[in-house]
Amino acid sequence: MSNVKAIDLNSHALSWVGKIHYDFGFLVQKAFHENGLDLSKEQWSVLKRLYVDDGQPQNDLAFITHRDKTSMTRLVNTMESKDLVVRKNDENDRRVNRIFLTVYGKQVIEKVQPIMYDLIPAVQESLDDQEIEVLIKALKKIKDKIAEIAEE
Rounded to 5 degrees, what are φ and ψ at 85? Predict the structure, then answer.
């Protein structure tokens, strides 16, 4: 028998962060579906990054969205087949693929933004401003600690 103590996952903050992330992802998918949008939360993540800075290199998008190159390629392929984005070679370096929003991709963003602007406050409405501030501060501390441990 090992000396490792059993962990009560309900008493750990990271377990709750994971549960909330999963549940919110499900809620986002449901909202997209109810609004007639054939879009995944992963695709939305890429669209919103391109909306801020269109034409980003595919590898940069992979890094920003925490995806490996292979899964990013599959995601971009799917998004291209849905006419959300188009992949173009970089003018100066043909090895670099830049990802651009299509006209349809921009239209999808226009449809999704109001959904997200309604959904996020609705989810947080049970917290007051001070609770949100404390929660964000605590989560930032955890993120910083993870980064510190990862660098060791």
Answer: -140, 165
